[in-house]
């Protein structure tokens, strides 16, 4: 495989990731304390409004020096953004006090009522629902995924102990027209690393890594539904290029870092190899330098 020399996002948006706080309705074992807790205070409405005005001023400075002014994409994250008591009121205010070149979205665990889901639709929000196998209300979360599928995609967090559950969920989402991305938990691959020992990163079995590779091959070919059967059943299925028997042993021993990485926002990249640019949703090499996902 040739080395990727450069990558770029082809969506031409100015992205603002807005962290609304640590509080979350879940307490997943792979989510470190600096990402969620139950005691961090909420930011008040006045400070939220002032912050948005600062963001708009900041974007205006950038736009002054740009030939083409991009859309500004404000994405709320946390913790869980929807638990903020002022969230829906603030988003309604923000949309009414922003120009047409702003859009708003959120990253959420989807564990909210149908009334809240309808509010999200009414506000025309877009973004990501993350499926956490350790969470509760999972049937309800899946209903919200289908309800919001027109503007939301799903990050399926592939927990090593809930792997088949995640596979079956992907099959259900696929049949119901919901966009999704299988996500490995953590990028660390050394069993002695702190992240693995603390549970923030998972070490996957050979069969699990094989499925992850087969999924991205299936996505290119879209040739069979067998990819969405429990992993034990897949290991006896011969399906041409995606058969386990056709996967070299050296690849089956490689770790999640060598698998590469998709954009967790579901965006398409262009990757530069030699002098040519190629569009892709999955970067097979993560060893390139000079790339930051966000600042």
What report would you give on this structure?
The protein is α/β, with parallel strands linked by helices and 295 residues long. The chain is built from ten helices and eleven strands. It has helices at residues 45-64, 87-96, 114-122, 138-147, 163-175, 194-198, 206-221, 231-234, 249-252, 256-259, and strands spanning 6-9, 13-19, 71-77, 102-108, 126-131, 152-157, 180-183, 261-262, 269-273, 276-280, 282-283. It has a six-stranded parallel beta sheet with strand order 2-3-4-5-6-7, with helices on one face. Strand 4, helix 3 and strand 5 form a beta-alpha-beta unit. The radius of gyration is 20 Å and the shape is globular. The protein starts with 5 loop residues before the first strand and ends in a 12-residue tail after the last strand. Residues 236-255 have low confidence and may be disordered.
Describe the structure concisely:
Helices cover 32% and strands 19% of the residues. It is an alpha/beta fold. The strands form three sheets. A six-stranded parallel beta sheet has the order 2-3-4-5-6-7, covered by helices on one side. Strands 1-9-10 form a three-stranded antiparallel beta sheet, with no helix packed on it.
